[in-house]
Amino acid sequence: SLANRLQATFDRLRGKGKVTEDDVNEMMREVRLALLEADVNFKVVKEFIAKVKERAIGQEVLKSLTPGQQVIKVVNDELTQLMGGEQSKIALASKAPTVVMMVGLQGAGKTTTTGKLAKYLQKQNRRPLLVACDIYRPAAIKQLQVLGEQLKVPVFSLGDQVSPVEIANQAIEQAKAEHNDYVLIDTAGRLHIDEKLMDELKDIRATVNPHEILLVVDAMTGQDAVNVAESFNQQLELSGVVLTKLDGDTRGGAALSVKAVTGKPIKFAGMGEKMDALEPFHPERMASRILGMGDVLTLIEKAQANVDQDKAKELERKMRKAEFTFEDFLEQMAQVRKLGPLDDLLGMLPGMNKVKGMKDLKVDEKALNRVEAIVKSMTKEEKQNPELLKTTSRKRRIAHGSGTSIQEVNRFIKQFEEMRKMMKQFTKMTDQAKKKKGKG
Ligand code: GDP
Ligand code: MG
């Protein structure tokens, strides 16, 4: 995979004191191959590599990082830049209603995303109106109505005998009358781009003058997504893109190229079929995901800014010697809770997305409380010596004491061991950074 490949090269570089031009060239060969394999557009890759090379070989040398980390940082920065830098927001018209037109190929996720956007807007106390303009696909109107019912959002439909242009037009009149501040128009798609589809979309656009035209693309379609985005943008002048199905096993190449090729920002990411599975698109997170590294740098920055320095030193010593205990774990949890939302932090841990089963781990506070209960049900000796927890009788006692199950206790201990291993790797990296600093 892209991640493994880069990882191997990064690891090789990590042991070095200085990055030479040859090193960078070697790394960039890997990055180029990996990006092409991830279906990133050829031209985009070429420009990207040139930019990274220039910066990596150039004068931007951060003393606190190892050479490998430096290159990672440059690659990460440039990837983020490529996907649009800052995340963008949905338009708000100065005079209501704000009209949003959803376009894209069949099956891309337009109707689903229309529902998700309605929910997203609802949460901001907006009053969206959904408009059923896909009159061709059987049951498309029904699909939107079902979503509307589920979300308690009104759906405007005139059946499948009235033209989409007319439906859209009347919908806006109704929105004005009913004081809906957003009108979300769900349009028809085809399996391929064709003139008839584009003409209809152009007609709707000319009639309703949308404030946003959002292209919905399926991230799993890779290079095709880029071609689709390019021609929709040429014909309709998009305002942004929604990338769906990012919850799947996609290689993310589409995310990289879409912005570069169209110049239009990716505004949202679809992360599942449910109505709440829509997230504002974070270029930085996507870059990290593509690199498969976890956001190491952000984590380091956050940790340095927030964790008490002395405690950090003591902790580091323990981590290095793998003396980290359950007691330390409890204390760390208290520290970590101070840092911010926990899923954010966990996502930043290097290797977290590689640990089996951890990828989709959503941290909920309840689960954490249970973990805390488990640790608190250990004896003082057990807390200080994780090795003691090999016997079933101890585990049973802890499960009983914490109101959990043996399975849960086992699972936690296993995760704890994984964490210890990761910490050891992590300290190896910071060691390298220190050595570098020492030499000046
Ligand atoms: P449309 O033809 O563009 O309107 O596409 P639909 O909204 O009907 O979606 C097509 C299929 O993709 C449906 O089965 C959706 O549940 C699914 N889908 C849409 N968005 C996502 C997403 O972000 N993740 C996943 N896993 N499935 C999605
Ligand atoms: Mg649809």
Automatic annotation (TrEMBL):
Compartment list: Cytoplasm
SUPFAM superfamilies: P-loop containing nucleoside triphosphate hydrolases, Signal peptide-binding domain
Record-listed E.C. numbers: 3.6.5.4
Reaction(s) catalysed (UniProt annotation): GTP + H2O = GDP + phosphate + H(+)
Record carries keyword RNA-binding: yes
UniProt domain comment: Composed of three domains: the N-terminal N domain, which is responsible for interactions with the ribosome, the central G domain, which binds GTP, and the C-terminal M domain, which binds the RNA and the signal sequence of the RNC.
Protein name: Signal recognition particle protein
